[in-house]
Amino acid sequence: MVYSIQNEQICASIQSLGAQLCSLREASTGREHLWQGDPAVWNGQAPLLFPNIGRLRGDVYRLGNREYSLPKHGFARRREFALESQSSSQLTLLLRDDEQTRASYPFSFELRLTFSLEGNALSMRHSVVNTGEVDMPFCLGAHPGFFCAEGDVLALDAPETLALYRLDGEKGLMKDEPVPYPVPEGRFALSSALFQKDAMVFDGIRSRSVTLLRQDGSRVRVEYDRAPCLGVWSQPKPPLRYVCLEPWFGMGDFVDFAGEFSEKRHCQILAPGQAFMFPLRIVIGA
């Protein structure tokens, strides 16, 4: 099912499947900012990544003496969320653990997404609650994709040198050594060539927002609070048509990773009864 919320400036639509944002339009013009293109190019729009991000080594992870299997980016994006509350400009969707999730992720949890419209901004509040009796490790990430074109620009808060991780093309796992990626003017141009080696994953990024500056003068800013990683991804085949700006708490497995799930880079550990909050804000015309 698709739910819609609206104010005087923005209209947003959200699917119950995966609690995925599927449309973000300007109310006055109807202009769409979220990817709506050919599913043969990319069939996502803004998938939710939980309880893992990226690929697991061997598609399995270890907890104590047991191994479990999880798909790339986890199971939340393929699960139906229940409607918990809705008003004209706000919506909350909820996923709870069940027998099926516990078979691959043996923890009790509540995962909520609250979407709120505030002027020209959409706020997305991710909430994870450990409803079980043991510590719960998890990773959590957002993956919104926006229309763009060759030559559009990404602008950070300020100049910085980023730690860039790339994927091993054969295994789809993270390479161990980051490469310095200087952004001396705080911005870099987008092109399909950037993604010939798959996603660009920046770790330890200091900027707390990134802005897509389109050549037609429009812009979209993604504010991601304290998320330690930012993935930037698109299909490498030209012409460039969309870009995903992905704040993450967690990363995919490295090629030589042999530890437990809780030892994954930037993995979060949530004590029983505790909650984890991840606010994300998308501003149109920032």
Automatic annotation (TrEMBL):
Originating species: Candidatus Alectryocaccomicrobium excrementavium
GO molecular function per UniProt: carbohydrate binding; isomerase activity
Single biological process term from Gene Ontology: carbohydrate metabolic process
Stored SUPFAM superfamilies: Galactose mutarotase-like
Pfam families, sorted: Aldose_epim
Protein origin, superkingdom: Bacteria
Protein name: Aldose 1-epimerase family protein
